[in-house]
Design brief:
Elements lengths: L3 E3 L16 H4 L17 E3 L6 H14 L4 E8 L5 E7 L4 E7 L7 H14 L3 H9 E6 L4 H8 L33 H13 L3 E8 L2 E3 L2 E2 L2 E4 L8 H18 L7 E3 L9 H7 L4 E7 L1 H4 L4 H21 L18 E2 L5
Parallel strand pairs: 5-6, 5-7, 7-12, 10-11
Antiparallel strand pairs: 1-2, 3-4, 4-6, 8-9, 8-13, 10-12
The structure holds zinc ion.
């Protein structure tokens, strides 16, 4: 795979001097640099260690070959440029959890976590057995492979935004009441067809955001359910339960700082649009390589994995139903945007 690309979008330093941070978060850094690590100026971002499109397909093939009795890999469509979009199904529990990643091509860490989740869910262990018995897991790792292909190209700035599909469409504006022609967004059409087919009890949708900080330091993850006012209350409540479960699953982590993502009523995002269609959907936004470089990949992938396994386990053992939706409201706000100061 191509190993590096250069960032220039984050070169303007903005001071965040008013932030209050734990001492450990600023250790070894200037006081105005919250937490870190940061990509500085023209510093290259190493993408080695993340699956290229070919490596992702090969990984799914290996998974299916290793566990033919418990894994089903199905091509659900093709991207604009003809790359396969695959769903992976593991388990046979009553509840179905759908995990979506990388609808924006330049937001890859959820895909890495989803592969780790599949490894865990297919393992011939008591924990793997419990997960497969308790939940049906459906994963679409990397909805926008064309964007990722562009992002890996060192000359990507010359072409289309890697966030968007190859028809220059933001796939995360194609849901619910969107009037975008899905013929131009075959990736979104594939996902929406899958959602109708598997009728999931819950959907988790993984993205990256830039850097924010609140009183607990640099935010590593922000989470929000379908908040559009027309979302059915029981659908919103299941999204709030999942939000609370994620907060709980990561509360003991030394690295994670989970906050609420700011509410917006844009109806055509997956979060709101799928919720409007009756499928509880939670947006998960992590700080990513665009600000953190590769130095936080391991911790952020582990964080995403913990959020996935926490929700899957709660659905599997039934504890999900006992979660008070109001617990989601106790997560802190995301705080202000901060930028690198190097
Ligand atoms: Zn995104």
């Amino acid at each position: 795979m191509r190993a590096t690309r250069v960032t220039s979008a984050l070169a303007v330093p903005v001071l965040a001097a008013s932030l209050t941070l734990p001492a450990a978060a600023t250790e070894g850094a200037a006081e105005t640099v919250p937490g870190g690590p940061w990509v500085c100026g023209e510093q290259p971002i190493r993408l080695s260690g993340l699956h290229s499109n070919g490596e992702l397909s090969a990984a799914l093939d290996r998974l299916a070959a290793r566990h033919p009795d418990v894994v089903d890999v199905t091509e659900i469509g093709r991207s604009v440029e003809g790359r396969p979009l695959e769903s992976v199904t593991v388990g046979h529990g009553e509840r179905t959890l759908l995990v979506l990643t990388q609808v924006h091509g330049d937001e890859p860490l959820g895909t890495e976590a989803a592969l780790a989740l599949l490894d865990r869910a297919t393992a011939p262990t008591p924990a793997g057995d419990a997960l497969r018995d308790g939940v049906t897991l459906v994963v679409v790792p990397r909805i926008n492979p064309d964007g990722w292909e562009r992002y890996q190209d060192p000359d990507f700035a010359e072409g289309l935004d890697p966030r968007r599909n190859s028809n220059d469409i933001d796939l995360n504006r194609t849901f619910g009441p969107s009037e975008i022609d899905l013929a131009l967004a075959p990736e979104a059409a594939a996902v929406q067809g899958l959602v109708e087919d598997v009728d999931p009890n819950l959907i988790l949708d993984y993205h990256h955001q830039v850097s924010y900080a609140n009183d607990d330091g640099l935010v590593t993850m922000s989470v929000l359910w379908g908040t559009h006012p027309d979302v059915a209350p029981e659908v919103a409540d299941d999204g709030r339960r999942a939000t609370a479960v994620i907060g709980d699953a990561l509360a003991g982590s030394g690295h994670a700082n989970v906050s609420l993502y700011p509410r917006s009523d844009t109806a055509t995002t997956a979060r709101n649009g799928l919720s409007l269609d009756g499928y509880p959907t939670v947006l998960v936004e992590q700080r990513g390589q665009q600000d953190a470089g590769q130095k936080s990949h391991g911790a952020l992938v582990r964080e995403a994995l913990a959020s996935m396994t926490g929700v899957a386990a709660a659905l599997a053992d039934g504890s999900f139903d006992d979660v008070d939706p109001a617990a989601a409201d106790l997560l802190p706000e995301r705080g202000d945007r901060v930028r690198e100061t190097c």
